UniProtKB/TrEMBL annotation:
<keyword id="KW-0678">Repressor</keyword>
<dbReference type="InterPro" id="IPR001034">
    <property type="entry name" value="DeoR_HTH"/>
</dbReference>
<dbReference type="Pfam" id="PF00455">
    <property type="entry name" value="DeoRC"/>
</dbReference>
<feature type="domain" description="HTH deoR-type">
    <location>
        <begin position="4"/>
        <end position="59"/>
    </location>
</feature>
<keyword id="KW-0805">Transcription regulation</keyword>
<dbReference type="InterPro" id="IPR036388">
    <property type="entry name" value="WH-like_DNA-bd_sf"/>
</dbReference>
<dbReference type="InterPro" id="IPR014036">
    <property type="entry name" value="DeoR-like_C"/>
</dbReference>
<dbReference type="InterPro" id="IPR050313">
    <property type="entry name" value="Carb_Metab_HTH_regulators"/>
</dbReference>
<dbReference type="Pfam" id="PF08220">
    <property type="entry name" value="HTH_DeoR"/>
</dbReference>
<dbReference type="InterPro" id="IPR018356">
    <property type="entry name" value="Tscrpt_reg_HTH_DeoR_CS"/>
</dbReference>
<dbReference type="InterPro" id="IPR036390">
    <property type="entry name" value="WH_DNA-bd_sf"/>
</dbReference>
<dbReference type="InterPro" id="IPR037171">
    <property type="entry name" value="NagB/RpiA_transferase-like"/>
</dbReference>
<dbReference type="GO" id="GO:0003677">
    <property type="term" value="F:DNA binding"/>
</dbReference>
<keyword id="KW-0238">DNA-binding</keyword>
<protein>
    <submittedName>
        <fullName>DeoR/GlpR family DNA-binding transcription regulator</fullName>
    </submittedName>
</protein>
<keyword id="KW-0804">Transcription</keyword>
Length: 263
């Protein structure tokens, strides 16, 4: 990875974490000149990764989704750990749905050594990631392929999910509101996620901490609709209370002994 790309990745993380960072603070953090930071910020703004402001950089609006290529590298390590930990819950011989998202893709990578899984997905990347797992069976839903991120959406995808009943439904979302509402951007994508929730015996939500800062407008459901949550950092107190009241089993990658509240 080039030095400029390393800097830009660091800038993106800082901006996503803080919301707004001045060029001077970025220069100090990265140990480079302000002029170097300005060049990086200008480039990243043209790539629609951040918003450029006079004297600094700001995160994109929480109402806007981030480009798929950027979501692939954003919090990659955290998502990878979430995926690996969630995969430990899945016994060999299970059936499961896996939906669209970079964190569910990390989960799929961690399933490669499982045996005799029966997987149904509306995510082309999940299917590709699982091809080194010949001991498992894989079904891809019909529907319209969304070329920008490999998601398969539309009535055909939803209808196909409705024809099955699986042991586990593994879903990702784009935001979690203060009251525990699960949020996303695309209505057709949401229809598939809701079908998975209805037809899985155990619903597993994968969501890193950045999802707590984003506010898409479309409603997927509520924390009470899931059984297990895997995340990277402990939940804020108000969401932890909601999860506890809903009897959700919460696991974090940060702690060896996760908070587990099983039904």
């Amino acid at each position: 990875m080039s030095k400029s790309l390393q800097r830009q990745k660091h800038i993106l993380k800082l901006v996503q974490k803080r919301g707004y960072v001045t060029n001077e603070d970025l220069a100090t953090e990265l140990n480079v000149t302000v002029q170097t930071v300005r060049r990086d910020v200008n480039f990243m703004a043209t790539e629609n990764l951040i918003n450029r402001h006079h004297g600094g950089a700001a995160a994109l609006s929480p109402l806007e989704n981030i480009d798929y290529a950027e979501r692939q590298i954003l919090n990659f390590k955290e998502k990878d750990l979430i995926g690996k930990k969630a995969a430990q819950l899945i016994p060999d011989g299970s059936s499961l749905f896996i939906n669209i998202g970079t964190t569910t893709e990390a989960f799929a990578r961690a399933l490669r050594h499982h045996k005799s899984l029966k997987i149904i997905t509306n995510n082309i990347h999940v299917a590709s990631l699982l091809t080194p797992a010949p001991a498992c069976s894989l079904t891809i839903t019909g529907g319209v392929v969304r070329l920008r991120d490999g998601g398969i959406i539309g009535p055909a995808a939803t209808h196909m999910i409705e024809q099955y009943r699986a042991d586990f439904g593994v879903i990702g979302i784009s935001g979690i509101d203060e009251d525990g509402t699960l949020l996303d951007f695309d209505a057709e994508e949401i229809n598939v996620a809701q079908a998975i929730i209805r037809n899985a015996r155990t619903v597993i939500l994968l969501a890193d901490h950045t999802k707590l800062k984003r506010r898409p407008m479309a409603r997927v459901g509520h924390l009470a609709d899931i059984d297990v949550l895997y995340t990277d950092l402990p939940l804020p107190d108000h969401l932890n209370t909601i999860a506890t009241q809903a009897n959700v089993s919460v696991h974090t990658t940060q702690d060896k002994a996760s908070s587990e509240k099983k039904k």
